[in-house]
Write a structure and sequence with these properties.
Layout: H1 2-32, E1 38-42, E2 53-57, E3 60-64, E4 77-81, E5 86-90, E6 101-105, E7 108-115, E8 132-140, E9 145-148, E10 160-164, E11 167-171, E12 184-188, E13 193-196, E14 208-212, E15 215-219, E16 233-237, E17 242-245, E18 257-261, E19 264-268, E20 280-284, E21 289-293, E22 306-308, E23 311-315, E24 330-334
Antiparallel strand pairs: 1-24, 2-3, 3-4, 4-5, 6-7, 7-8, 8-9, 10-11, 11-12, 12-13, 14-15, 15-16, 16-17, 18-19, 19-20, 20-21, 22-23, 23-24
Length: 336
């Protein structure tokens, strides 16, 4: 009898343990399953454009420069009002640029660096990532006017730009020789000068660059061409002028679009030579971990991201790799 009881107890214990493991596995699967988020569409821009800059200021979305199939370096700029779901043109930038870095700070919108699409002095066909420029412009919405600022120390396009503690950071990018760089410069609008800061640990461009809670996160990007994508996550602390590593981007990619919303750094899309990415992943600042979302309705790269309220807006870009399928569409994603 004792032997039968022991066997029965062991069987029941095994059953309970198995059930517990099943529950743990289910909970783990739930934790790892993609979150949904919600997608919506806003009014199309007046025309397609790819590789613009974008910034949010006072509840509006500013879209700066970029290119089309016919124009390498757009100077035109637009503003979108989510409440009215309408676009209007604003004053054009002092010169046309694509792959422009952008940020908003203290009631102004900034456009930093970029490419002109052609090598210096060349009148031939378009060459992507050629013609890097060192320009910096500041837009005043109240005056609807641009001001030319002191230039960066060297020309750079596809540079990561973020505003932090009253200053503008310009990180990485690609120079006139079409090589990626680790350069990190800071512009102080009050003093009107650029200063050097600790360089990016790994030189690259086409990366997400986001300021959050007193730090700057530089995520993903490419080392050279679009098949050299990385998932690196470097975090800059301005108080120490030093970088540290964060949890890597789960899907290495470059040329995507990103923004900070509700404590999440959302990274959507990107490209390689064969496709555009439709992955949506977000870094949760509180959990210090990445969240995977359900795939977006379409892949996208060469757009830009900016958050207004609980949504991240992605204007224009290309749904195919390179310059294929340039769009005028406006996508909005709400992660919660």
């Amino acid at each position: 009898m004792a032997s039968d009881f022991t066997a029965s107890l062991r069987g029941r214990t095994a059953g309970v343990a198995g059930a517990a493991l099943f529950v743990l596995a289910a909970l783990s699967a739930m934790a790892q399953s993609p979150s949904a988020g919600t997608w919506s569409a806003g009014a199309d821009m007046p025309g397609p454009r790819t590789e613009p800059g974008a910034a949010a200021l006072d509840g509006k979305l500013y879209v700066l420069g970029g290119s089309t199939r016919d124009i390498d370096d757009l100077a035109t700029a637009l503003v979108y009002d989510p409440e009215a779901n309408a676009w209007r043109a604003i004053a054009s930038m002092p010169r046309g640029i694509n792959h422009v870095g952008s940020a908003a700070l203290n009631g102004r919108v900034y456009a930093i660096g970029g490419f002109t699409g052609k090598a210096t002095g060349e009148n031939g066909p378009r060459k992507v990532h050629f013609g890097a420029v060192d320009v910096a412009f500041e837009y005043d919405p109240a005056a609807n006017a641009w001001k030319t600022l002191p230039p960066m120390s060297s020309p750079r396009g596809s540079v990561g730009v973020a505003a932090l503690d009253g200053k503008i950071h310009a990180i990485g990018g690609r120079g006139l020789d079409i090589k990626t760089v680790a350069t990190h410069e800071i512009y102080d609008p009050a003093a009107g000068v650029w200063t050097r800061a600790a360089p990016l640990p790994t030189k690259r461009d086409h990366m997400a660059t986001i300021s959050a809670r007193g730090l700057i996160h530089v995520i993903g990007g490419r080392l050279d061409d679009r098949d050299d994508n990385v998932g690196l996550h470097d975090i800059y602390d301005p108080r120490a002028d030093a970088w540290r590593s964060g949890p890597p981007l789960p899907t290495p990619r470059s040329g995507g679009q990103s923004a900070l919303v509700g404590g999440l750094i959302v990274v959507y899309g990107g490209e390689n030579s064969k496709k555009t990415f439709d992955e949506v992943e977000a870094f949760d600042l509180d959990a210090n971990a990445w969240i995977s979302y359900a795939r977006a309705p379409t892949g996208l790269h060469a757009s830009a991201g900016a958050a207004i309220g609980d949504a991240v807006y992605f204007p224009g870009g290309s749904t195919g790799p390179g310059g294929d399928a340039i769009t005028a569409g406006l996508r909005a994603f709400r992660p919660r």
